[in-house]
Design goal:
mainly alpha; 0% strand; flat; 79 residues; 3 helices; 84% helix
Amino acid sequence: MSEKQHRKEDMASLRSLKLEELAAQNKEMTEEVFWLDWKHKSGQVENTASIRNARRKVARIRTLIREKEMAEKGQGAKS
């Protein structure tokens, strides 16, 4: 499976999550980025691409959180 296909499947699975679940994922991934950075600085990370991938996943999650928040605001204003 190509990286692009994997990313699309990842986004599809993230889009199906509720806002609370996305917030939990965001917290988990943010902690993972912290620990990967810490391990990288101490020379314990062999695959440095994992840091970039984790940061990108955090960005995707934050984007989805923002989209869902905006959608909820839009629905609340219309009602």
